[in-house]
Design brief:
The structure is a single chain. The chain has about 170 residues and is mainly α. The protein has nine helices and no strands. Helices cover about 75% and strands about 0% of the residues.
C-alpha cells in the first residue's frame, strides 16, 4: 500500500474506531469480544483499503464488514454457539442513573441469537432504516422486519416487570 493510503487508513481508523467498538460491544455483549471484533474489522478494512476507500459511504462499508464478520464468526463453530450465553456485564462501582436498566438490556440482548441481535442493534441503537439493515445483513426487508418483531417480543417478555421509565420520585 502506498504511504498516502496507509496514512488515510490510519486517519480513518482513529475516527471510526469508537463507533465501530460501540456497535461491536452491543453485538458481542462483552469488552474482549468487542475489542477483537473491532480489530478484526479494522484489519479487514486495511487489507482491502484500496477498495474500501473508494466506497460511497465508508462508514456504511465498515459497519457492513463488522456485522458480517460478527455473524460469520458466530456461525463458524459449535463452541461459539455454546458460548452464546455469556455472563452479564459486571456493574460499574458507581452506576449512573439508569445503569441497572442498561445492564439488564445488555444481558437480555446477549441472549438473542447473533443475527437477531445484529438486527436489533442496527435498527434501534444505530437507528438505521430497515432498508439499510437488510443491505448490511444481505437479507430481505421483510426478514429484518420479522426479526425485529420477534426479537422485541422476546425482549419485552424477558423484561417482565422492569421499570422502563422513571417515576420521578
Amino acid at each position: 500500500m502506498a504511504e498516502g493510503g496507509s496514512a488515510a487508513f490510519e486517519a480513518y481508523a482513529r475516527t471510526a474506531q469508537r463507533r465501530l467498538y460501540r456497535t461491536a460491544y452491543l453485538l458481542c455483549g462483552d469488552v474482549e469480544g468487542a475489542r477483537d471484533l473491532t480489530q478484526t474489522t479494522l484489519a479487514k478494512l486495511f487489507q482491502h483499503w484500496r477498495r474500501a476507500s473508494r466506497a460511497d459511504n465508508l462508514d456504511a462499508y465498515a459497519r457492513t464488514v463488522l456485522v458480517r464478520t460478527f455473524v460469520a464468526e458466530r456461525r463458524r463453530t459449535v463452541r461459539d454457539l455454546l458460548a452464546h450465553h455469556r455472563q452479564a456485564p459486571r456493574p460499574h462501582p458507581n452506576p449512573a442513573p439508569g445503569a441497572d436498566l442498561r445492564l439488564t438490556l445488555l444481558s437480555l440482548l446477549a441472549e438473542l441469537p447473533p443475527r437477531a441481535r445484529a438486527v436489533v442493534v442496527l435498527r434501534y441503537w444505530d437507528d438505521l432504516s430497515v432498508e439499510t439493515v437488510a443491505s448490511l445483513l444481505g437479507c430481505s426487508e421483510s426478514t429484518v422486519k420479522s426479526q425485529c418483531s420477534r426479537s422485541l417480543v422476546r425482549l419485552r417478555a424477558r423484561m417482565g416487570d422492569v421499570q422502563l421509565y422513571s417515576t420521578g420520585g
